């Protein structure tokens, strides 16, 4: 991991190098001493416990690779670190931890579930005995229901159970409950205590107090029943409730652990993209080397069907490469000499050699991973609400539980209920309040949605930088697009070639003459013509007497012919009548194209038109944005005629032409002042300021490369078309909806659940919630929130 | 039927006392504060934070504009504390159980920078001066 320290001199970089083989403080000291003596090293500290060396160095004097070699020179192992690898390693460590947690929770949940069932059966005779006693009924409504349905069955199946003295049954229950609490439920109590010491409270606090109170109550009833009977209270026991609550919450936690694991599938998928080895040419031989041995400038060989091991530029060969895993582009991309390839993509049927350019932390894959991790580490503003509630939640719930107990106790007392039943009911309600309250669902609502959404985005080549951008993207009203390179290809192309009717020059020869002439020119339009000729596989001749007349065109001699390509003014200057093609030229101009007359040997031979064509996906994408209720505005530095023509073809709502970059910024500010939430879509190079000014800046990858880290942008699109914008906004909207659903359900669950548990429905409907049912509701509320977030994984590119 | 008895009053008084105490304890009682030790050579400020049911210390005083290196020593497996989040720095990091995890941030200016667990249940803050 290479990071620049913010306050250190600019020339100092820092790197953390994993070191293996260190066994003692002496090893640590030795490596540290050696590193500090290395030229270019500002500071070095080696940590035996962490197994790494942190080195501050001057990048102009040394490099991480040299430092690794230096460490290796001392006899210990070291690897060049890369950001993506450390992220993957972190994820692996996390996966292992979560897998262990899941397995442990599963075992404990199953075991305590079995103990819970036994406890329930054993408590039947106890309850039967109690219901024959003074109080008549069992306070817990759920247990009462279980008892009435289970008792006849049990009396038939295990009649001997009912002949065991209740004292023995009570003590038996006490033992198995204590064992369950000490083993399966142990972490609830230890964690609650640890939090308590920090003046903090969490889910464990609630469970610990709830089950702890029920257990202590039952314990007194078992060991010293006279304490209750002397106060006229029936010594009921709640052991089975304690065990079953623990079992249910463990089950919920196990499901939650499993579901949370799935929120990180995208990172695991990206980790699998990186090949472990590369085939490079060294000393004119092809050898396989580990990926971190590949150096910038290495010649890498890629065979059919292989993964491209690192980023680079094709030197020879050609192929189609599947880049869908990084850019979301479904069709394979043709790669020829000079094309950029991205590490992690899959080569098709051709084979090629390329020069490695960016490696390790600078690679596209590493940057994607970094952006995704950053996004997952960020917090959406909507989270603030949940945070505020979470921070005060548990103490407030404890307070509510206390109030519940007091109110029930006093009310029952006042209504003449004998003391015992009042205590029991008040107690059950208070415990139910503690158990049903679930702060976890609230805490998970937003982060899990951001996590899944960022991963899904990365899969689709959409990198949203953080929760705040995600939230704003969901609120957009207006999308401002840059014309060149965004709506259009950004590269002039020959669109029309019209031959003069009365000239018998073969088309191919005409193309050859024009392209041969233009090859000598450096004008971008000339480049389009030469490419056109190359695409048609026309052979070009050499040009002499080349002249470029600014604002008019070019002239020269190709072979034996005098060729001129330019506007009407050039034709007039050469004395070539152009009237036969004037109307065609005007029509092409109106379509936003740039027509040029061609004269061969002072005779008008034809008309060639060049334009920056609209991308095939632009029109559908703009229609889609309209369907989503968004207004689309196109800004361009081009002239009004061209801009209008493209605007008509792309069907944008409005267009502003002849704009300088500052004017684009002003236009965005104007829209914002009018109350719009504005997105700016550009290629991130000359639109930087406008992208930064907008509410959500989209930088789309240009055809020239795939620079992910476009600083100013909120959303980086790996694919160079507007369709990515549509998907990004859709995904953001979906994510926002998921977050809101999650928060809504988490709040409503608690807002409804807590009063019901407290007995709010009792005065009117006579409904009381059993602590056991409360624990089931609590356990599954957080699972449902995570599951709802996981639904984002199924987000479809429609 | 019968007016409130002494027992009722006792229960009410105990209830009020319990509620007051709970709120005082969790919201107002003093928590640990510590200042980071700073090494003059690099200007970096180092501090170790024990993670066990909370952050100890939970409030850390540092100098603004200089890197702060926090070593989170997570001494538990409870999943609640498995992540550390510094929202101001877009940083979310997994803390492996029973390991020290280094987090480096540089508070750009004086102010309070909160950090918390992944689910926002455990809280701590950096106070940059």
Descriptive overview:
In chain A, strand 1 and strand 2 (13-20) form a beta hairpin. The longest helix of chain A is centred in the N-terminal third of the chain and has 49 residues, at 83-131. By secondary structure, chain A is α+β, with helices and mostly antiparallel strands. In chain A, the strands form 4 sheets. In chain A, strands 6, 7, 8, 9, 10, 11, 12 and 13 form an 8-stranded antiparallel β-sheet that branches. In chain A, strands 14-26-25-24-15-22-23 form a 7-stranded mixed β-sheet, sandwiched between helices. In chain A, strands 16-21-20-19-18-17 form a 6-stranded antiparallel β-sheet, sandwiched between helices. With 129 residues, chain B is of the alpha/beta class. The longest helix of chain B is centred in the first third of the chain and has 23 residues, at 6-28. The termini of chain B are far apart. Chain B has one helix at 6-28; strands at residues 33-35, 37-38, 45-51, 55-56, 59-62, 68-74, 83-86, 91-94, 99-105, 111-117, 123-128. In chain B, the strands form 2 sheets. Chain B has a 6-stranded mixed β-sheet, with no helix packed on it. In chain B, strands 2, 3, 4, 6 and 9 form a 5-stranded mixed β-sheet that branches. In chain B, 33% of the residues are buried. Chain B is elongated. At the A-B interface, helix 3, helix 6, helix 12, helix 13 and helix 15 of A face helix 1, strand 4, strand 8 and strand 9 of B.
């Amino acid at each position: 991991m290479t990071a620049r320290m913010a306050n250190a001199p600019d020339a100092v970089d820092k790197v953390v190098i994993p070191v293996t083989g260190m066994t003692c403080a002496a090893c640590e000291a030795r490596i540290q001493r050696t590193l500090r003596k290395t030229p270019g090293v500002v500071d070095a500290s080696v940590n035996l416990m962490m197994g790494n060396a942190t080195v501050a160095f001057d990048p102009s004097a040394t490099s991480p690779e040299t430092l690794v070699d230096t460490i290796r020179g001392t006899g210990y192992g070291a690897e060049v670190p890369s950001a993506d690898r450390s992220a993957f390693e972190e994820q692996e460590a996390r996966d292992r931890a979560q897998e262990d947690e899941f397995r442990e929770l599963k075992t404990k949940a199953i075991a305590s579930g079995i103990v819970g069932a036994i406890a329930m059966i054993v408590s039947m005779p106890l309850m039967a005995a109690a219901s024959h006693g003074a109080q008549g009924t069992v306070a817990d409504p759920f247990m009462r229901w279980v008892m009435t349905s289970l008792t006849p069955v049990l009396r038939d199946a295990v009649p001997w159970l009912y002949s065991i003295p209740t004292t023995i049954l009570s003590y038996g229950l006490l033992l198995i409950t204590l064992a369950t609490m000490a083993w399966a439920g142990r972490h609830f109590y230890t964690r609650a205590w640890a939090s308590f010491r920090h003046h903090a409270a969490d889910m464990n606090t609630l469970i610990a107090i709830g089950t702890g109170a029920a257990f202590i109550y039952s314990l007194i009833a078992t060991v010293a029943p006279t304490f209750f009977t002397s106060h006229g209270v029936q010594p009921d026991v709640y052991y089975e409730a304690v065990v079953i609550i623990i079992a249910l919450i463990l089950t919920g936690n196990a499901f939650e652990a499993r579901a949370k694991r799935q929120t990180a599938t995208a990172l695991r998928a990206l980790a699998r993209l990186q090949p472990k080895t590369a085939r490079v040419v060294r000393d004119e031989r092809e050898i396989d080397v580990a990926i971190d041995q590949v150096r910038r400038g290495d010649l890498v060989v890629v065979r059919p069907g292989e993964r491209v091991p690192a980023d680079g530029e094709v030197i020879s060969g050609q192929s189609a490469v599947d880049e869908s895993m990084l850019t979301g582009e479904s069709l394979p991309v043709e790669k020829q000499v000079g094309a950029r390839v991205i590490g992690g993509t899959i080569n098709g049927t051709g084979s090629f050699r390329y020069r490695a350019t960016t490696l390790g932390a600078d690679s596209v894959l590493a940057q994607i991973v970094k952006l995704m991790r950053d996004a997952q580490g960020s917090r959406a503003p909507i989270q603030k609400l949940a945070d505020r509630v979470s921070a005060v939640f548990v103490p407030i719930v404890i307070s509510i539980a206390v109030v519940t107990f007091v109110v029930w106790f006093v009310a029952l007392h006042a209504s003449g209920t004998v003391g015992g039943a009042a205590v029991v009911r008040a107690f059950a309600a208070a415990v139910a309040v503690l158990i049903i309250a679930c702060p976890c669902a609230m805490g998970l609502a937003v982060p899990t949605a951001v996590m899944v959404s960022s991963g899904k985005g990365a899969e689709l080549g959409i990198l949203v930088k953080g929760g705040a951008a995600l939230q704003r993207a969901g609120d957009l009203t207006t999308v401002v697009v840059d014309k060149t390179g965004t709506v259009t290809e950004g590269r002039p192309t020959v669109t029309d070639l019209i031959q003069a009717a009365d000239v018998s020059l073969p088309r191919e020869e005409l193309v050859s003459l024009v392209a041969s002439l233009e090859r000598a020119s450096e004008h971008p339009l000339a480049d389009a013509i030469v490419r056109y000729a190359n695409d048609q596989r026309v052979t070009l001749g050499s040009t002499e007497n080349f002249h470029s007349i600014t604002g008019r065109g070019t002239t020269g001699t190709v072979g034996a012919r005098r060729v001129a390509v330019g506007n009407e003014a050039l034709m007039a200057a050469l004395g070539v009548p152009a009237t036969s093609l004037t109307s065609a030229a005007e029509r092409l101009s109106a379509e936003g194209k740039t027509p040029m007359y061609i004269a061969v040997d002072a005779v008008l031979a034809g008309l060639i038109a060049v334009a920056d064509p609209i991308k095939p996906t632009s029109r559908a994408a703009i229609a889609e944005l309209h369907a989503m209720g968004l207004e689309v505005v196109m800004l361009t530095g081009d002239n009004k005629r061209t801009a209008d023509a493209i605007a008509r073809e792309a069907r944008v709502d409005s267009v502003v032409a002849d704009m300088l970059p500052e004017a684009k910024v002003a236009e965005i500010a104007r829209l914002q002042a009018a109350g719009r939430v504005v997105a700016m879509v550009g290629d991130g190079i000359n639109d930087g300021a406008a992208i930064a000014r907008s509410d959500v800046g989209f930088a789309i990858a240009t055809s020239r490369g795939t620079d992910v880290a476009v600083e100013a942008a909120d959303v980086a699109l790996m694919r160079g078309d507007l369709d990515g914008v549509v998907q990004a906004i859709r995904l953001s909207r979906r994510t926002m909806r998921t977050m809101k659903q999650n928060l809504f359900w988490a709040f409503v669950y608690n807002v409804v659940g807590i009063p019901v548990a407290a007995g709010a429905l009792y005065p009117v409907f006579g409904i009381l919630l059993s602590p056991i049912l409360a624990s089931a509701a609590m356990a599954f509320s957080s699972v449902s929130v995570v599951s709802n977030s996981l639904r984002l994984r199924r987000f479809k590119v429609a | 039927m019968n007016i409130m008895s002494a027992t009722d009053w006792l229960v009410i008084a105990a209830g009020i006392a319990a509620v007051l105490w709970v709120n005082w304890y969790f919201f107002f009682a003093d928590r640990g504060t510590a200042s980071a030790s700073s090494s003059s050579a690099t200007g970096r400020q180092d501090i170790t934070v024990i993670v066990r049911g909370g952050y100890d210390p939970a409030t850390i005083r540092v100098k603004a504009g200089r890197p702060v290196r926090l070593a989170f020593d997570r001494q538990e497996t409870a999943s609640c504390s498995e992540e550390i989040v510094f929202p101001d720095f877009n940083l979310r990091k997994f803390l492996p159980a029973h390991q020290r995890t280094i987090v480096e941030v540089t508070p750009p200016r004086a102010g309070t920078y909160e950090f918390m667990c992944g689910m926002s249940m455990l809280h701590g803050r950096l106070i940059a001066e």
